[in-house]
Amino acid sequence: MIHEWNKGIWNELASLAERLPHALLIHGPVGVGKRALAEHLAQFLLCEGPGSGRPCGRCDGCRWFVAGNHPDVRWLEPEAIAKAAATEAEEEDRATTRPAKPSLEIKVEQVRALADFLNVGSHRGRQRIALVHPAEDMNLHAANSLLKSLEEPPPGAVFVLVSHRPARLLPTIRSRCIALPVGLPERAVAEAWLRANDVADAARWLAFAGGAPLLALE
Question: Under 8 Å CB-to-CB from 14, ≥6 apart: which residues?
Answer without folding.
Answer: 44, 53, 54
